[in-house]
Amino acid sequence: MRAPGRKHEHSERVAVIGLGRFGTSVAKTLHELGYEVTAIDRGEKQIQEASDFVTLAVQGDGTDQELLRQLSIDQSAVAVVAQGESLEASVLSTLLLKKLRVPWVVAKAKSTLHGELLRKVGADRVVFPELDAGVRLAHSLGVRHINDYISLSPSTGIAKLQTPANLVGHPLVDVIGNLGSKLNVLLIKRGSSLITVPHYQEVLQANDELIVVGADAHIEEFCEHNPDIARIGHPANSVV
C-alpha cells in the first residue's frame, strides 16, 4: 500500500524506516525543512497518517531488500532507521541500507549494546532518544533551576538558566562572579532574540535566559549561589 503524500521539489531525498513517535517526528520535521521524505512502516494506520506530511508513505517491511530497491532508497542522501523496538529489524535495515550504498545512515538504539551492534554493521551515526531524554530530565529535576540541559560528556554540559531575580539590572559579570573563568556564557536568550557571545558588561533583563557551558559541578555551584532561580522556570524542549 502506497500513500502519495505531498509533492516536493527539494533535491535531497531522505528515507525514514519505522513510524513510531521518534520516526514520525523525524519524518515530519524533515519534510517541513524541505526534504523529499519517503517513509516506510508495517502499520496501515501509521502510513495513512504519514501521508499527510511526507512525500511518499509506503506500508511494508523495512528489512525487505527488494522493497528498498523498488523505492530507490539507494538514491537517498540520508536514511533514518527508527525501528527501536526490534533490535533484529533495526540492525538488518541498517545493514541493507549500507549494502545499497546509502551515504549516511542514522539509526536509533535503545541501549549501548544495541548501538554497538548498529555501528558494527555500518551505521554512520547512532542516536539514543530515550537515554538522551533521560539524562536531560535527570539534570532538570536534580537541579531544579536548570530549565534544560544537554550532556557533552559524563561531567560537562550546556544548561539553560533563568536569570536570578535579584540580579536583574546587573551586568553579566555580577551573575557569573567567581565562576567567570570556569563557566562560559554562550548566549543570552531575550524574548525571541539571541545575544551571542555577550559582553561581560551586558545588563541583564527580567526573564533573560542564560545558555552556559561548563563542568556540571560549576553549573550546580552557580545555581547554589543564586537560589532565586529555583523559583523560576520549568523543563523545556530544547536548549534554544
CATH level-4 homologous superfamily of the largest domain: NAD(P)-binding Rossmann-like Domain
For the terminal residues, how far apart are their CA atoms?
Answer: 39 Å
The coarse silhouette is elongated
**CATH architectural label of the largest domain:** 3-Layer(aba) Sandwich
Per DSSP, the total helix count is: 8
Characterize the quaternary organization of these chains.
Answer: single chain
Q: Strand share of the residues?
A: 25-35%
Low-confidence stretches: 1-10, 137-145, 230-240
- What gyration radius follows from the Cα positions, in whole Å? 22 Å
Q: Using the coordinates shown, work out and report the CATH topology of the largest domain.
A: Rossmann fold
Mean of residue pLDDT? 80
**Helix/strand/pairing category:** alpha/beta
CATH class of the largest domain: Alpha Beta
Question: What is the succession of H and E elements?
Answer: EEHEHEHEHEHEHEEHEEEH
Q: How are strands sequenced across the largest beta sheet?
A: 1-4-3-2-5-6-7
Largest sheet: 7 strands, mixed
Helix content: 25-40%
Question: What would you note in describing this structure?
Answer:
This protein is an alpha/beta fold and 240 residues long. It has 2 domains: 2-127, NAD(P)-binding Rossmann-like Domain (Rossmann fold), CATH 3.40.50.720; 132-231, Regulator of K+ conductance, C-terminal domain (Alpha-Beta Plaits, 2-Layer Sandwich). The protein is 32% helix and 26% strand. The protein contains 8 helices and 12 strands. The strands form 2 sheets. It has a 7-stranded mixed β-sheet, sandwiched between helices. Strands 8-9-12-10-11 form a 5-stranded antiparallel β-sheet.
